[in-house]
Specification:
The complex is a heterodimer of chains A (about 550) and B (about 210).
Chain A: E1 17-18, H1 30-49, E2 50-58, E3 70-73, E4 76-86, E5 93-100, E6 112-116, E7 119-121, E8 124-126, H2 130-133, E9 136-140, E10 150-152, E11 166-173, E12 184-187, E13 190-200, E14 207-214, E15 226-229, E16 234-238, E17 241-245, H3 249-254, E18 257-260, E19 276-280, H4 283-287, E20 295-301, E21 313-316, E22 319-329, E23 340-346, H5 353-364, H6 372-380, E24 383-391, E25 396-403, E26 419-421, H7 427-444, H8 447-493, H9 499-527, H10 531-534, H11 554-559
Parallel strand pairs in A: 2-10, 3-9, 11-19, 12-18, 15-19, 20-26, 21-25
Antiparallel strand pairs in A: 2-5, 3-4, 4-5, 6-9, 7-8, 11-14, 12-13, 13-14, 15-18, 16-17, 20-23, 21-22, 22-23, 24-25
Chain B: E1 12-14, E2 21-23, E3 30-31, H1 46-66, E4 70-74, E5 77-81, H2 83-92, H3 96-125, H4 132-145, H5 151-162, E6 169-173, H6 175-193, H7 197-200
């Protein structure tokens, strides 16, 4: 403005040089615009990424960390817990979860949420990784498209996630036993599924379990498959020894379900989803042929049935085909006895082919549904019920139905309901009776008096012996001494130098001599028999008068006879 | 005001870089004949440049504070921290001094810079003669403390480089720290583009 009229000091000052034109300074405004664009893009990004916000209620906030705990589906983070607060009534906690945009589909009606924490149970260990990384919320999405933003979290992970391939079946059981959600399902001891849920039946008379069998093993569940509770240990003592049967150690502790098709021909088409099966208590019952319709029968026993309990088996010719359901005492006024009325449920179908044939026969003859006439005929042929001892140690009884050909005839009324089967005392009872009789007879033997008499006799005997000892024995002693003396004498007598011996020797010589002379005589007499009459002839020449030499002695001898 | 004549009154212009005084030829593209740097009486478009950079810095400062700057992974425990939550965590975990330092460097200083520059810009634009000395001192303070705000960025850079123990402990930088660094750089640029002589320009002078 005022440059010209002011003195300019130092005109020799250098002149500035003119350079290339500089960049327009207003371009600097591009910087904030760029910054704004970046900021805006961030905002838009965040806004487009933000998915729905949902509330999930849990029993406890254990492991839930606001701002940190992620929500994962198949281990991919789909959201984050932003806030955890108590519910209005303070009974549970509500976790607010900001889902990502891509996880919008998780805010639908059938999505399930649960907290994944380390779990150590009988069935196994899970969620160990969360020990270090902290818990996270697991999610499982369903098919539903219906929007929902308020959920109730599960307390334990669902055993079956939605996308899992396989089939769900229902099992009906009397009670839950040791089964639980997540209990394994075994097929030939390979785990093929899990119990996914259970609930009481509406009437409270049973439990329905829902199980999930994974593909491809679900094809083994056929229309005739039997399920049984494989929990615990089955110990059976049979004729072939002790058998212990379990599925796996985990099953022993935590329970499980096993299934298999029955042996023999059966319908092997794969079962449809949600087919209902019965859950049997053990394999044996499960694999037994179908029981068919139960029938109620009644038996009247006159003897005591100690050892017979409800549920004791009823066997027909050794085939178990029913069980005892009631045992009641009755009073018979006529005989003043207390018979026992035993009620039993029998499943005639268990008899298999026999049953089929009997039914066919009964139908052909126009029998009624209860086959009472058929029964009548069988009873006529000696069908009787017996209470038999199943176990000698415990005295457990069972009911056996057998044909006893020489059973006494009984009156049978085919119109009574339930059918009444005549009974006969059991073989063991008979044995018992006979034993009792024997014992009775033994009892009648007067052991007391026998004993007394025996005692007396023994006393007397002892007295006698005493007498013998005191009086008889000394005499015996003296007698023996006498005998000894006598023997000594005898000994002396027979000694070689004794007189007797010598006398005897002399006598013997004399006798010898006598015998010799007798021989001479007989010889002479043989030659001269006349010498007997005439006596000995006078001595002649030897040849002329041999007989005359004998007369001197002959008279004594010849005159004697 | 001052009775001394101004350079512009004398038709003179000084080089910012080498200090050579030349005649003011009032050409927009004049350059120092000695060192070749651009010659201008006042920094050209100082107001608009500073404003633009200040606004840009502020815009960048928002995500710098809202976005997490570090991710600390310790034994599988993942922790994302923004500047403020980091400060709070430091305070809670028993390092209040550190917390104060980080807070000062990362929150107080940038905010102070925004306010100081804004104040200087507005007051100078209005050719206010209020507390000119103090304003000049304030500007020098802003220039001086500007780069200290980079502390946070350095901390993150160092931690990221040093704490790499895989699963046990790991620190990762997150986008927030980039924005924060940008904030610091842009505020420094803004304070650089502000010409402190504008403070002294009275009402009677034109830009």
């Amino acid at each position: 403005m005022t440059d010209e009229n002011k003195p300019v000091p130092g005109d020799d000052l250098p002149e500035p040089v003119v350079q290339r034109p500089r960049i327009n300074a207003s371009l600097v405004w591009l910087v904030p615009v760029l910054a704004a664009l970046v900021g805006l893009s961030l905002v838009i990004h965040a806004w487009t990424q933000a998915g729905p916000t949902i509330n999930v209620s849990f029993q406890s906030a254990e492991g839930l960390d606001p701002g940190k705990t992620p929500v994962k589906y198949k281990n991919v983070t789909i959201g984050r817990v932003t806030n955890v607060r108590l519910s209005q009534d303070r009974t549970h906690v509500v976790a607010k979860i900001a889902l990502e945009k891509s996880a919008q589909g998780f805010a639908t009606a059938d999505t399930r949420f649960w907290v994944v924490r380390p779990r150590i149970g009988l069935g196994g260990v899970s969620g160990i990784d969360t020990l270090l990384s902290g818990s996270f919320i697991g999610a499982d999405v369903g098919e539903s498209q219906e929007y929902k933003d308020d959920f109730t979290g599960l307390e334990s992970p669902p055993p079956v996630t939605h996308g899992a391939q396989g089939k769900t079946f229902d099992l009906q059981a009397d009670d839950l036993g040791s089964l639980d959600i997540g209990s394994p399902i075994y097929y030939r001891r390979i785990q093929v599924g899990r119990v996914s849920s259970y609930h009481l039946d509406e009437d409270g008379k049973g439990v329905t379990l829902q199980i999930f069998v994974e593909k491809p093993n679900d094809q083994f569940v056929t229309k005739s498959t039997r399920f049984w509770n494989a929990s615990g240990i089955d110990v059976s003592l049979g004729a072939d020894g002790l058998k212990v049967n379990t599925q796996s150690l985990a099953t022993v502790l935590a329970g499980g379900v096993a299934f298999q098709d029955p042996a023999g021909p059966h319908d092997a088409t794969a079962a449809d989803e949600n087919t209902t099966y019965r859950l049997f208590n053990d394999r044996a019952t499960a694999m037994a042929p179908p029981d068919g319709e139960p029938k109620y029968i009644r038996m009247r026993f006159s003897q005591s049935l100690r050892g017979l309990v409800v549920d004791a088996p009823v066997e027909f010719l050794g085939v178990p085909f029913g069980r005892v359901v009631s045992i009641n005492l009755d009073f018979d006024e006529k005989t003043q006895t207390f018979p026992t009325i035993v009620g039993a449920v029998v499943y005639p179908q268990r008899l298999g082919r026999a049953h089929d044939k009997l039914v066919a026969l009964a139908k052909a003859r126009g029998d009624d549904e209860q086959m009472s006439q058929m029964m009548g005929r069988l009873i006529e042929h000696g069908l009787r019920a017996q209470a038999r001892t199943g176990n000698l140690l415990t005295g457990q009884l069972y009911i056996a139905m057998d044909f006893l050909p020489n059973a006494p005839k009984v009156a049978y009324d085919p119109t009574t309901r339930p059918l009444e089967i005549p009974t006969t005392p059991g073989s063991f009872d008979k044995l018992q009776e006979q034993l009792a009789e024997i014992v009775d007879k033994i009892h009648k033997i007067p052991f007391d008096s026998i004993g007394k008499n025996l005692d007396q006799s023994l006393g007397e005997l002892s007295q006698t012996l005493k007498q013998v000892n005191t009086s008889v024995l000394p005499e015996v002693k003296t007698t023996l001494q006498g005998a000894q003396q006598t023997l000594g004498n005898a000994n002396n007598m027979f000694a070689p130098d004794s007189q007797l011996q010598q006398n005897l020797g002399g006598s013997m010589q004399e006798l010898q001599r006598a015998a010799r002379s007798l021989r001479v005589l007989t010889d002479y007499l043989g030659d001269h028999p006349d010498a007997l009459l005439r006596g000995r002839r006078a001595d002649q020449p030897l040849q002329a008068q041999p007989a005359q030499a004998a007369p001197p002695s002959a008279p004594t001898q010849g005159s004697k006879p | 005001m001052s009775t001394l004549p101004r350079a512009s009154e004398l038709g003179l212009i000084g080089c910012h870089v080498c200090g050579l005084v030349c005649r003011d030829i009032r050409a927009p593209d004049a350059a120092c004949p000695r060192c070749g740097s651009a010659l201008h009486r006042r920094k050209s478009a100082s107001y608009s440049k500073t404003w633009a950079l200040l606004i840009a810095a502020f815009l960048v400062y928002l995500p710098a504070n809202l976005l997490p700057i570090t991710r600390t992974v310790s034994l599988g425990d993942v922790d994302d921290n923004t500047i403020l939550t980091g400060v709070v965590e430091l305070w809670v975990k028993g390092s209040p001094y550190l917390a104060v330092i980080v807070f000062t460097a990362s929150i107080v200083v940038p905010v102070l810079k925004f306010f100081a520059l804004g104040l200087l810009l507005i007051s100078s634009r209005r050719r206010s003669q209020w507390a000119q000395r103090q304003r000049a001192k304030l500007f020098r303070l802003v220039e001086f403390i500007g780069y200290w705000s980079m502390l946070d960025v350095f901390v993150v850079a160092l931690l990221t480089a040093l704490v790499q123990f895989g699963f046990f402990s790991q620190v990762e930088p997150l986008p927030g720290v980039v924005f924060f660094g940008l904030t610091v750089v842009i505020t420094m640029l803004a304070s650089m583009s502000f010409d402190p002589r504008l403070i002294w320009d009275g009402r009677e002078f034109d830009d």
